[in-house]
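Treating backbone geometry as a discrete language has practical consequences that deserve illustration. Part of our work consisted of pairing the sequence of a single chain with a tokenised description of its backbone. What the numbers capture is local backbone geometry rather than side-chain detail. For completeness, the protein is quoted in full, as a sequence line and a line of structure tokens:
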Amino acid sequence: MSHHLITFSDVCFSYPDGTQVLKGVSFQIHHGEKVALVGANGAGKSTLINLLSGFYQPSSGYIALGDIKVTPATIETVRRTIGFTFQNPDDQLFMPTVFDDVAFGLVNMGVEGEDLERQVMSALRRVGVEHLAERPPYRLSGGQKRSVALAGILVMEPSVLVLDEPSNALDPQARENLLEQLTAFTHSQLIATHDLDLVLDICDRVIVLSQGEVLSNATPAETFSNLELLQASSLGLPLKMQGKKI
């Protein structure tokens, strides 16, 4: 059994008021794949990630990590395997300093002393914000908060990364650091994003969602050459493809 395999099988989700958000979503992510989840606002991307993280439960269908279905009974096992960063990094930053935030998971695992210092600073260095170690999170820019949130995930050495709009609010250097980290991460990734250049640069496959349904499951080249698909899903071309013949 591989904890790196993620399966969505005929997943439906509705809010208590009856609004249906996801309608029979099915796909798999295999070991080592970097899979983008794209679509217009309201397509269901964040809802899908919240289902995988266990914050919501499907109305029908199931989500599995390897052969473990994501349920309230298994969610702690799932969360030890998957590293999540959410759309708003303030949801993940709550300690007095950046160092304390990144150290939080390790401390709860009993890591301390020099080992703790080494692992935390290494994670901060990986995302280019080691100079912020003693800064209170509330004094960080939006992009810095995103980098710190990512460091807090990477320090735990997860088997799978699940990222919701990871490049939002990043300056060019921070975005470049992010791309380097995602490229270097050899395990599975699910990346919900509006950053289509990021998709083109690092992703192996693209899941296109529209109004809660999967319109396409294809490579970036196939996805961005399908102008009918892009129009139907309210997507454009990556900036580096604009003005080029398809």
